[in-house]
Queue: 4 jobs
Job 1
Amino acid sequence: MNQKNSLGIDHCFGELDNPFKLFEEWFNTAKKTEINDPNALALGTSDKEGNSSVRMVLLKGFNEKGFIFYTNLNSKKSEDIKVNPKASMCFHWKSLLRQVRVIGKINSVSSKDADEYYNSRAYGSRIGAWASKQSAILNQRDELTQSINKFKKKFPDVNNVPRPNYWSGWNLSPTEIEFWLDGENRIHQRLKYIRLDGNNWKKVLLSP
């Protein structure tokens, strides 16, 4: 029988008052068990008409301020965020039978942070940021190939590819974070953190 914590749920939920500490523990475990991309998450946004969209993106950092990812600022996700900054995330670690759901508001990262991450990327990825008009219609795949070749000629120095002004990062600052653990007969275990103010959180159990 699994050891339980003081709330009567599995010990993997810990006794932590800060959800970012718990996320860090779960995320570090997922890094060891997930075959591919433990930092993959489903990002949900909606446009000004309320039409929702979900896509997979990669988490590139997190701290007490939120969860960070990077993208083209003219992409569909970014256009949604500009008109409606409320969004959600869902991490699913199948190897652990765990999920983490996040709800909150998205803000842009600083230019310094965007530059630092952009410059850490592979040369081809930095060129791709220039070459791809993300989410725009392509008449032929060759259009993209030609654009990539054009920017390789423009920026031949692998150590000197400037960040496009239309490429940066977003940070989702959570108001709620839910941790989910698969249970037998669909009797799952769910722990939700609700932000009260600043770094103060309230913990509640949810029925499966």
Job 2
Amino acid sequence: MNSTNKKTSVIIICGPTGVGKTSVGLELAKQWNGEIISADSMQIYRFMNIGTAKPTPAEQAEVAHHMIDIINPDEPFDAKRYSHMAREKIHGLHAQGILPFVVGGTGFYIKAIEYGLFDSELSDPDIRLHLKKEAEERGTAFLYERLSQCDPDTAGIVHPNDTYRIVRALEVYERTGKGISTYRREHAFADHPFRVLKIGCKINREILYERINERVDGMLEKGFVDEVRALLQRGYGSDLKSMQSIGYSHITDFIKGQTPWEEAVRTMKRDTRRYAKRQLTWFNADSSVKWIEPEQITDIHKMVELFLNNAPDAGVMNSLLPETPFAK
């Protein structure tokens, strides 16, 4: 496999939540002697299964999965640690003759695998502590608005409720006078150890939003409320980064009596749709993504085959893609 190329070959399956990445990844991994490395910033947590749409035990039995259930919900974790662990796993699989499939929708995790992360002294504990206190006193929305003014590029890819990343971005800005997005561009992600085929799964947006609504309903039917209640009973509070994520924060507010059921479900669906839109914005900005509908599995297999056979002409792969553009 890829004997003529010094770089390790990696297949990346990306796209918005609810589009069908898991099914595509499973199908390809079974066909091509592969294993799956999750690129999902929520599936890393133990005990958080339904709300993260984690692959089922049956799916994980079909194909080995990695970077799932690796930390508890109250443990710190960041993209740098993810990059180190995922890259180590990719090299390990390659050494065993197993093809790595990176599957997920966390764009920054995927970028961290591909290009690494810049290493710089941008931290200031005093500034961070001040920002955390400000978040407690004035709310995360207040800090997010400030981030939108000083570093709109970062604000565009960070969820408004993600206190951790908002504080981190503002910490860098207040310490240096430059947005963290600027440092990432300057770094230029020069570290590029892999040969990558990046397949983006994309469908009509109206259909995607319908699937997301149905997916939320399915999570609730599977016992998502009980899952969140169990997390709270284990002592994982609503102030944790993991518990502030989409779905978990909504259901926590319902359990605590702060939000009526209908409103919790409505806003959970709305915020999941908004998250999918941000994911599409991120991946659409990446010219290396080759977009295709997940149902076109035969054509996706052809793309992988051409890539692994070192097809020199990218136009060959592009000829497999749909002729009509996807709806915006």
Job 3
Amino acid sequence: MILRATLPTWLQQALLFDRAAFQPLLLGQAQVGWLRPAFAARLAAWPQVFSPAGEGLAFSPLLADAALRSQALAAVLQALRDEAMFPGWRDELYALHDAAGVELLRFERAAAKHFGFIGPAAHLNGLVSLAEGLHMWIATRSASKAAEPGKLDNMVAGGIAAGMDGASCLIKECFEEAGMPAALARRALPSGRLEFARAVPQGVDAQRIAVFDIELPAGFVPTNQDGEVAAFELLPVSAVLERLQVAHAFTVDAALVALDCLRRRGLAP
């Protein structure tokens, strides 16, 4: 757990979240998302899917299971997509789960922030021990990515699609993003979970990140396969820490993951 007061100033500011500026989205009695008021008003056009609930909205109780909710929400999202609401549409589904791990619904990934749904992800810190000390592989995101192009990122990072878990997602992403064979990727060690929610222009960026670390042989050089990474750099810890101080050089999630890794090793204040 990283205390926000110990983070670089830019990262503290990026994690600000004024809940009073949003309306809750409920499923039954449980809150499952956050809505900007203007977006909540737009969703009122689908009373068969959303109904008023206190200061926010709730999924209709007639949508009694995950399949019905997913189907109804997909129709809403498609209509809003036709209005150009969701640039960067992925045709990739995330799954929303309750506290017990029961799937509640599936939704198009590009809509996550508008609804404040939790976006599950897996990130990998790629570490190399050299004679001069520990180094970390840092990726630069492709300039063509829909989200945060050109920013620094963890060696491997990807959203966990519906039906996958963190470990299986990581193995897939390790090959796609870094050309890492599955046999090597399976050596990654689970190293905890990071969660945050922050206000963004679309709504709320809420993430739950499964963090993994891997000690890589010095001879392994990551090679991107899917066009989502422009370059990789193997940096000493001191250089990683310097770049983490530069406002928005890293994505917010990658900065948190890298800092967490270095602090667990006693290498960051």
Job 4
Amino acid sequence: MTQRQAMLRDIEIEVELTRHSIGKDALDPRVMAAMAKVPRERFLPDSLRHLAFRDGPVPIGHGQTISQPYIVALMTDLLAPEPGDTILEIGTGSGYQAAVLAELVQRVYTTEIVEPLATEAAERLSRLGYRNIELRRCDGYGGWPEHAPYDGIVVTAAAPHIPQPLIEQLKPGGRLVIPVGLPGEIQELEVVEKTKDGGLHTRQVLGVAFVPLTGGHGAD
């Protein structure tokens, strides 16, 4: 069994262990195929590539991490992405989550507040041939209104509350996936669905631990 195959097996085991919380016995096969295809090891520094397929997060510098493979797969699955979708990601980090999404949808817009990470991720994604990802270095709390509304929005850092600009930029019928809570406390991975008439339906899926959303509003 290769390391990549072992990673996929670990994701399947995590799904089995959390099936009552997430409400399903398996993730979308398209999501699993994207996880198998994207070269996770290419999103880590050379010195940490041996940790690429471990069943946990890996630091990427500047106080940030590349999330556990299971969490990346789960958050992608919870978005329920369709091939024609446009997705907004808040918190590019290494660019790995954006790359997984780019395998599944038409367009990914992604924001990163840490300038060195933004620069490295943009260069990495370009080098790997991803042409349907656009990256902006900015405080993602305010989203990216120029390209709204989005079919889905995913936030890869924990916020103390759901940013209102992201709700406003979500298309009716779309989903927002975000960890909510404070650093050092149990956070809840939440899915917010916007109904066709603009109403909101929120459900808590799973207890998680994410680095905090940074920027002007991240610690409000």
